[in-house]
Design brief:
heterodimer, A: mainly alpha, 14 helices, globular, B: alpha/beta, six-stranded mixed β-sheet
Chain lengths: 362, 256
């Protein structure tokens, strides 16, 4: 009798474990599926642009460079357009999308606040200020666009450092991070407005153009920099996946599970700030992805950060790449800046998912 | 295994609420009720035991192990915590929530053994039908059972509850207390429960620690401690204590 009962429980345990594994497998399939959608979108993006290149020619131009030993019959101008204009732009979109997605997920995870995004801790306002300052001082004459990016990045990190020091006095509590971030954001916004107030028409045009955000004209060297920062951030944030899961249950619960909550917050916030700051120093302010990608990902795949972290990268990349492609197509030959398109594309998608999944929290 | 806290003192830097000079002991299988008015230091005491707050004075030993000097991860092998279920809950499944209880024992990857331990606890808590449901789809009582399951998945020796039955209806309150009782007996767990309902505390706890203004007012069995005088001193309340089948029963009367 007792043996029977034990056997029955063992069978139930096996059943539960199997179900749990299936649910993990299902999430892995979502990851794979998302990856394929991203791949298709990437290939599609390659064929879209101002120059009228047919789909077949786009592919030929793409392969002409990777497979130089095969003689492909293609105009070398097409090869240049694909490799020097479209590919860098696509690569930038992919990496920046991943960066905004993961940064948003990490920031929302450590603050347990669904309204937080990578920009909440002052990164964008400070980068905007830095870029405005550099443009108005005419630093681009001295060192080109790289100087603008460098100044923007320096100010972004300065702001994050400031937010960190203020929040540190309050033991890095989520509220102190968000509040000091909001305060620093307002401070830099005001400083930026002050700069604009004294700027000439010509300077303002340049500044506004930068602030809109753009994925074009970023060199392969700089793309490598954005990628390196993203990879570092990914490793840090992904390694914190279990700690983020524990934190989702509350501060005290996480502590009781042995999580050093301040350390997790410091690591995730630092990694998010770094990858976001590097990305927007080159692209300008691209909004909404960092806020929307985590929400969309959570609604689709749930809040287990082992899956959520990589999935939010994919969703971020899909959103940014799609926004950029649509921005190039709908009013062609006029291009709509990607910073505007992200909201136009992301918000309807977000609302759709939100209504469909109204049962799930956060 | 024997829990022994001595002279625990914690002062918040700015607030007056704190605990001072609290000592008590607990044996395996024993359920200790922490009772006292709001702000009397029940939560502070629980946080000190969990290592979330570092007491300025005093010691906590589990047998010969000094808990206050232990790494958080090691401490999580011995002590588990069940919070009030008023926290906003994340969109993860019951199984995933219980799996976070294995966190102190795991590195990054989940071993087969961890999954089995969680599955067993889920069955013990009678949650098997809900294992793949999202937390926010569950009722209050079911959620509280999930939080208990997570704590049990840690395989602790001491389990601390912070007002676990707050916001539960009477059926779920009873159900939860029965679970606390069953686990204490079956697993020889030391259970420490902060609780407001004195009648439930009297019924299920072996001993009660009465806190007032951060100090230990008295401790002992419910029969010894639940007196008209004690309620007047601690809560400023006039109450009649009647005896129902050998168990003291509090009938509140007026506020003093």
């Amino acid at each position: 009798m007792l043996n029977n009962k034990a056997a029955a429980i063992d069978a139930q345990i096996k059943d539960l474990v199997k179900k749990q594994k299936n649910s993990c497998a299902k999430k892995s399939w979502w990851l794979l599926g998302g990856f394929f959608i991203l791949l298709i979108l990437t290939v599609f993006s390659l064929t879209v642009g101002a120059a009228d290149i047919s789909i077949a020619d786009s592919f030929k131009a793409f392969f002409a460079k990777i497979l130089p030993f095969i003689n492909i019959d293609i105009d070398p101008i097409y090869v240049d357009i694909i490799w020097d204009m479209r590919m860098p732009r696509i690569a930038t979109a992919l990496i920046c999308g991943c960066a905004f997605g993961i940064a948003g997920t990490a920031m929302q995870g450590v603050t347990r606040n669904p309204l937080v995004e990578p920009y909440t801790i002052g990164v964008s306002a400070a980068a905007g200020f830095g870029a405005s300052l550099a443009l108005i001082l005419g630093l681009s004459m001295v060192g080109g666009n790289f100087i603008i990016s460098l100044v923007a990045f320096s100010f972004a990190m300065l702001a994050v450092g400031g937010v960190y020091l203020i929040a540190k006095m309050k033991n890095l509590s989520p509220e102190s991070l968000v509040l000091s971030g909001v305060a620093v954001t307002y401070l830099f916004s005001a400083a930026t407005s002050f700069l604009h107030y004294g700027a000439t028409e010509q300077q303002l045009t340049e500044v506004v153009h930068w602030l809109f955000g753009s994925l074009s004209g970023i060199s392969w060297v700089n793309i490598t920099l954005i990628l390196a920062a993203f990879i570092l951030a990914f490793i840090i944030i992904f390694s914190q996946a279990w700690n983020l899961n524990a934190l989702a249950g509350g501060e005290d619960t996480a502590s009781s599970l042995g999580v050093k909550t301040s350390r997790t917050r410091f690591l995730c916030m630092g990694a998010s700030a770094l990858t976001t700051a590097v990305a927007i120093s080159f692209t300008g302010i691209i909004g909404f992805i960092g806020l929307l990608a985590p929400h969309i990902s959570r609604m689709i795949i749930g809040q287990d950060h082992r899956f959520l972290v990589p999935f939010s990268c994919i969703v971020g990349a899909v959103l940014l790449l799609a926004s950029d492609a649509i921005g190039r197509i709908i009013l062609a030959p006029i291009e709509i800046p990607v910073g505007i398109m992200t909201a136009f594309v992301g918000v309807p998608f977000f609302i759709y998912i939100m209504i469909r999944n109204r049962k799930r929290g956060l | 295994m024997h829990l022994h806290a001595e002279n625990l003192t914690y002062t918040y830097t700015r607030h007056t609420t704190a605990i001072s000079d609290i000592s008590f002991e607990a044996c395996p299988g024993e359920i200790i009720g922490l009772v006292g008015p709001n702000g009397s230091g029940k939560s502070t005491l629980i946080k000190c035991l969990l290592g979330i707050l570092k007491p300025q004075q005093g010691t906590v030993y589990l047998n010969s192990q000094n808990l206050l000097k232990m790494l958080p991860v090691k401490l999580a092998h011995l002590l588990a915590y069940v919070p009030q279920n008023t926290e906003r809950l994340p969109a993860i499944t019951v199984f995933e929530t219980v799996l976070t209880g294995r966190k102190p024992h795991m590195h990054w990857f989940v071993a087969e053994q961890d999954r089995e331990i969680c599955a067993r606890v889920i069955i013990e808590m009678n949650l098997q039908e809900l294992a793949e449901r999202q937390l926010d789809e569950l009722s209050g009582g079911e959620r509280q059972r999930v939080l208990v399951a997570r704590a049990l998945a840690q395989q602790p020796q001491v389990i601390l509850f912070d007002e676990p039955t707050a916001s539960l209806d009477i059926r779920y309150q009873l159900e939860l207390w029965e679970l606390i009782q069953k686990n204490a007996t079956d697993k020889k767990l030391i259970s420490i429960v902060a609780v407001h309902d004195l009648n439930l505390a009297a019924r299920y706890c072996h001993r009660l620690l009465f806190l007032k203004n951060g100090r230990l007012y008295q401790s002992g069995t419910p029969q010894e401690t639940l007196t008209t005088q004690a309620l007047r001193d601690i809560y400023d309340v006039n109450a009649t204590i009647s005896n129902l089948n050998g168990m003291p029963h509090v009938l509140p009367d007026t506020v003093i």
